[in-house]
Amino acid sequence: MGLFDKFNGLVAARSELGALRIDPFGVEIERIISPTEGIIHGRHTILAGTNNYLGLTFNPECLAAAHRALDAEGTGTTGSRMANGSYSGHRRLEEELAAFYGVRDAIVFSTGYQANLGMLAGLTGPNDVVLLDADCHASIYDGCRMSGAEVIRFRHNNADDLAKRMRRLGARATDTLILVEGIYSMLGDRAPLKEIVDVKREFGGYLLVDEAHSLGVLGERGRGLVEEAGVLADADFIVGTFSKSLGGAGGFCVSDLPELDLVRYSSRPYIFTASPSPATIASTRQALRVLAEGHELRARLRANFERLHSGLTALGYTLGAPPSPVIAVVFDDKVATLKFWRDLLDRGVYVNLMLPPATPNGVSLIRCSVSAAHTPGQIDAVCAAFADLRTVT
Amino acid sequence: MTGNSTFDYPQILAEICGELVKVTLGRIAIDEDTELLGDLNLDSLQVMNLLLHVEDRFDISIPVSILPDVKTVKDLALRIENLTREG
Q1: Average model confidence (pLDDT) for chain A?
Q2: Cβ contact, residue pair B3, A168, below 8 Å
Q3: Which of B44, B59, B65 is facing A150, going by the closest CB pair?
Q4: pLDDT category, A279, cuts 50, 70, 90?
Q5: CA–CA separation, B42 and A318 (whole Å)
Q6: Are the Cβ atoms of A168 and B63 closer than 8 angstroms?
Q7: How far, in Å, CA of A118 to CA of A266, rounded?
Q8: Has residue B3 been placed in a domain?
Q9: Of these four, A63, A76, A204, B64, which has the most CB atoms within 10 Å of its CB?
Q10: Domain limits at B59?
Q11: Any idea what DSSP says for residue A168?
Q12: CATH number assigned to the domain comprising residue B36
């Protein structure tokens, strides 16, 4: 088998898309106008698939902080956190994240993907057991694979199934790491966190909650599902990203366990990569302040996602979950979904296209993500495009 | 990772084939030499979901890490037989 033979399937799939005049994975935003608008294919387009939940990418205070850091500290750190890449801003952000959650410490990673990769590869090893929700993100699966830990899946959002697997582990359950997400990225459903915590209390073990899609979105202060469900103290590790509600790039893990600091020394994705740029750190620090005080932003976000959810429900679409900022429209037929995605873009609405095997249960998804920065008029325009296509299809 | 029961190879093989038939809807003949990815064209997620059902039947937990070494139905059956014995 030749070096490139493995790509034969990809080449065929890409040809199929080309024949349909669809390129969902190569979209170029020719000009970004605001958190919710851009120019795509020369057309003014509403962006409803960017995970920009609080719409902070153009926040004036965040922009100003980034500009100041850029001028004062340069374009990049050119080094690892373990070498020359830890500026005072990186450490202050870690302290501020720890204070935000009321825990001992935090580690900042260069991306959200690397936060999961770095935590799992640094924390667990070949003699450890990881029990993860079947619908966890690829970064979690990749981190598990990198760690060499024994990885066991439990049925999605099924605490009884988790308990069954904890029971089978016997004495090993007390050192097992349980992994769930606050809001799942594909369907937008939430973990039954109280029930998951009950299982942990019964069998022991440690709990890591990935709040990538729920940070800034859920909870009075935006601390995610752990706050909303009232179980913050039961989460041993909370992972999050800067690239969604914080409008930047990077990731973090916070924990009250003193051992968190040791992960820095064992985590290859932390050690062998350059640290986030000073401008990214500065805008993220400012965004975290805005997020913590962002009650109005969260109220606007909620009003927007409830407006879109009820609008699409009224049109008769099948949605993946109760209202959340991630609203997935479920389709059975892959080609029909591809055409639907293209037709939405032709009508000036950009959303995400999700296809098997990346999706749960082999479904195809048109995935919308809602922002606090969307206007009610933009939400209505998105609904109108879906209504138009409902008539067509 | 195991329950406290033991199962012999034919039982395990029959159970796996039964689950696979549900996925393939009987369109393809399945025996122990059938390749999960090559012959049945299953994707990785379908194989992992198949394991969830098999785990319940035998009261075991199957680590995801065994999958890279599982090519055929027989490979999977032998792995499960080992896991049930370990208990």
Answers
A1: 96
A2: yes
A3: B65
A4: very high
A5: 26
A6: no
A7: 9
A8: no
A9: B64
A10: 9-86
A11: H
A12: 1.10.1200.10
